Amino acid sequence: MTTLPPLPVASPTIGEREQHNVLEALQSGWVSSTGPYVEAFERRFASYIGVRHAVAVSNGTVALHLALHALGVGPGDEVIVPDLTFVATAHAVLMTGATPVFVDVDRATWCVSPAAVEKALSQRTKAILPVHLYGQPCDMTAIEAIARRADAFVIEDAAQGLGATWQGRRVGGMSKAGCFSFFGNKLITTGEGGMVVTNDDALAARLRSLHAHGLDPKRRYFHTELAFNYRMTNLQAALGLAQLEQIDEFLEAKRRVHGWYRERLGHLSIQLNPSSPDSAYWMSSVVLTTHIDRAHVMARLASRGVESRPFFVPMSQMPHLCGYRAVAADGESGCPSASELSVSGVNLPSGCHLIEADVERVCSALMELIRE
Ligand SMILES: *Cc1c(COP(=O)(O)O)cnc(C)c1O
Fold first, then answer.
1. How many whole angstroms separate alpha carbon 287 and alpha carbon 320?
2. Which atom of ligand 1 sits closest to the CA of residue 59?
3. What are the CA-CA distances from residue 10 to residues 5, 86, 111, 161 (Å)?
4. Pocket lining: 60 vs ligand 1, CB cutoff 6 Å
5. Residue 86: which residues within 8 A CB-CB, separation 6 or more?
6. Å from CA of 20 to ligand 1 middle
7. How far is the CA of 371 from the centre of ligand 1 (A)?
8. Model's pTM, two decimal places?
9. pLDDT tens readout for residues 152-195
């Protein structure tokens, strides 16, 4: 029997273009945060999203922290966060000293439930932080409307949503500020890295100063407040620019892979990602029905060289986060849809390099297990 190569859930696509840029950055000697690639990457990224400003930072977590801090979010404020996300979303809120309020997600879209956001509002709500989970755009129309009525900011966590659109506009560029991550498993990577985008000129200037120790833009070595070193390096940006030049191909590959899964699994009693031409399909995922044992499915897939990952654990179930308010769509305490999805969701191999035969291999293994 021939052993087929293992299929990872995600892996970066790195080629000659990346090698060329990184080598050039190395040879130029500009290895830290000064250098031409940073500005070139920022400019091209802003143009891709369709916003006036982009500020490159060292990772996605600090992108969120920087945006929240720059908007004055701090102790005494509440920030509404979906319960089903990567923990960085909640950690960024806590890093400002503000209080996260966890809200349930929509059972169909897996993204934050606007009804739950509405129920979670309080006098202290300063910001709403929607997450475009697994590449699916949130209902930004509903969220912006709620935020306007509540006089709160919207900051998008678009770490998983790069390339997704909502009503013809790219996510991340639809609110006060949008935050991205370029970790190795994201749509484009810089190793570690992130970006904050905004259309607000004053906010952009503030982000730029705060990510470099509160530097006065007009006077060298003069700093006006306590701030951070959150800059991206020229080496990272060299990699990022090469990646960004290929983003259309990466997105097309993600959508093609998802299409292959849908052809084979769409008729079964398991739920796939919400079907939407606006989704970036960063991850192709399935939510199993309750009578299927997820651990068994994942172990059997692994025995055939197919890596899979469970959905995120809800924020409200983490030992250090379970004391904060958690609000369901009907206003009750708790996040039942996030809990249900969390125990039954599986991310499948979703890399851009997958071919149809790889997806066929994953699906035939899955279908056997579901029939058992
Ligand atoms: C990846 C990710 C982050 C954090 O990005 P890092 O670059 O790893 O710090 C934040 N939020 C979400 C939803 C993510 O997926």
1. 27
2. 7
3. 14, 16, 21, 15
4. yes
5. 131, 159, 160, 312
6. 27
7. 36
8. 0.97
9. 999 999 999 999 999 999 999 999 999 999 999 999 999 999 99
